[in-house]
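Deliverable D5.2: sample structural annotation.
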Amino acid sequence: PLFAFWNLAKRLIELNLLFTRSLREKNYLLYVATLKVTVPYFFFDHPNYVRWLSVHIRDLDALPDRCPSVYTEFMQGKFVISLKGIPFTGIPLDQANEFNIKKVKVCDDESLFTINTRQITDTKVTELIRSLESIGQQQYQNFVEEQFVSRNKSVEDPIKHNGLAMFSTPVQAKQATKSKLCLLYSKSDNKLFSRLYIGCEARGAVLDEFFKHENHAFPPALSDVGELRLGTKSGIVQCLVDIVDETVVIPFGHPFADSKVMKGSVLVHMIKTKTGKTFGQYARDDFSEYIRKQFDDDTQQIDIIFDVYKPDSLKNSTREKRGKTSYKSRIEERTPVPKKWQNFLHDSENKEQLFRLLANKMRFWNTWTLMPEITHTFLELLTPSHELNEKHFNLLERFVIFLYEKTSGKIDINKLRKRMFTQKTANMERLPPTKAALREQIKRAHLQSQCWSNSHLPVITQLNPADYEWKLVEGVWCPHWTDLPQASAACCNSC
């Protein structure tokens, strides 16, 4: 009986793998054959599966005679959907539909964006969708009135194209070219200024007073068609080089530099990624990897400074000049990196979201650099048979506090929870764990580290999970979260 049991289990696993293979490889015959072999097992505890799978199999068997065209398409693998055309990625139609529904459900704002690229559409597209039906209805009524009722136009007259904004329309401000504006303002200035001058002179006015005033609200000598004239960074580089003593300049990458300061926005422009990666992969494989390579034996600290794009910043006019065409995107770890990287970086909101993602990815690593003494604790936890003591708990608690608030002066994580809840956020998922729960989690992490550190030994000592805050419930190991009661019970007891 023991052999029969394991042979049956092996058979069921093989059927499951064959069914999955038929979907991934788009093998229709294997799909039908696997269903016929699998359906008898459903009679034991899945009556609904038996009922409708039997109908499904009967329909599939009748396809060659009743719907040969559908049967031909299914034989070509079109009974499943392939993800992005990649081999061995076929999934059933209902599963693909669930994937699309899930993508829509994760939307947490009112922005309209494309599902695959996460590109946010222009506000004109949103307004168009709301008024699309009324616009079409009005144009239809006008067409009927002009062509059929009043007969002012022929039916064959060309119909004007709407030129409405679409999902792929980039955000681009329509404005006249600078050369045309300069020419227009120049002609207007000369004529108006000449007339004013002649008028003042004819009236005997004091011309010195006349020339104290500008002809425009913006002075042409200081403005560039209404915008502040700006210099270029490259224009002052040589001036700075001339006044700096080269003997005291430490070049970048000098082996004796114990700390480095980098500008995050420059790194983003410099560190490009391959097309097809997601932002999560970019942060992990490209950005973080580049930062790690900057550490050496002497460099113990790297500070990365990211820009903050405030709406009332004086630098907004400069940013508007740098990029005329851009589009907004929802920056998430699974969002694909856009092909036009520079156009993506033209938008300030895109960069701010990207900087926030990169900063969060670097949070654990940055916290580690703030507490170099935690390294010794991590190494001790990996040492076989090493026991945790109060010093380890206190250091790890302080480390977790820094993860939530780098500048926190709190040394008790419960007090940090209180301050964050009353002053920052009421979202419980954003609060750190309690001190009691954190201690239990540290013990469970210690068990896992012991398993890893002993994995290379020929004879491994079995550890009892019950000693590391796991409890056996009906034969299943479950985590023991905390010894303290829930907040509701504690509140009732204290009242």
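Annotation notes: The mean pLDDT is 77. The CA atoms of residues 125 and 165 lie 6 Å apart.
The annotation will be released with the project's public dataset once the embargo ends.
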